[in-house]
Amino acid sequence: MQDGSSCLSPAQCRAARALIAWSKGDLSSASKIPEATIAGYEAGKLFPDEQALRDMKRSLENAGVLFIPENGGGAGVRLARPASASIDTDETETVQYEEYLKNDAPPGAGG
C-alpha cells in the first residue's frame, strides 16, 4: 500500500485542519472517512488508500484550504480565501449597541 504522500501528507492534513479549526471529527464528517483512520494517518501509523486521501483533501479544499505542492520549498497549506472574507466590513451601516446609548459622562464633560 502506498503512503499517499503525493496526494496529502500527514503533516499537511494536520496543518490544514488547524488552519480552519477543524477537529478530526469535523474532517471525518465531511470526508466520510473514519476518525480513527484520520488519527492513525496523522500519527504516521496508518496509510489509507489513495481514494480516502483524495476524499480528505477534497473536503479540506472545500472548506477553504489550498494545498501547496512540494516545489523546492516544501509542501504546505494556506487559506484559499482571505480569512477576513467572512467578516462584515460594511462601514456605511451604523450599529448602536444599547449599552452604549446611555450617557454615563459627568455633566460638562463635553462631547
- Can you give the mean pLDDT? 82
Count of beta strands: 2
CATH topology label of the domain at 10-80: 434 Repressor (Amino-terminal Domain)
Biggest sheet record: 2 strands, antiparallel
Overall 3D shape? elongated
Q: Please give the radius of gyration in angstroms.
A: 22 Å
Q: Indicate the proportion of strand residues.
A: 5-15%
Q: How are helices and strands ordered from N to C?
A: HHHHEEH
What report would you give on this structure?
With 111 residues, the protein is mainly alpha-helical. It has a domain at 10-80: 434 Repressor (Amino-terminal Domain) (Orthogonal Bundle), CATH 1.10.260.40. It is built from five helices and two strands, in the order ααααββα. A two-stranded antiparallel ribbon has the order 1-2. A hairpin with a 7-residue loop joins strand 1 and strand 2 (76-79). Mean pLDDT is 82; it is low at 1-5.
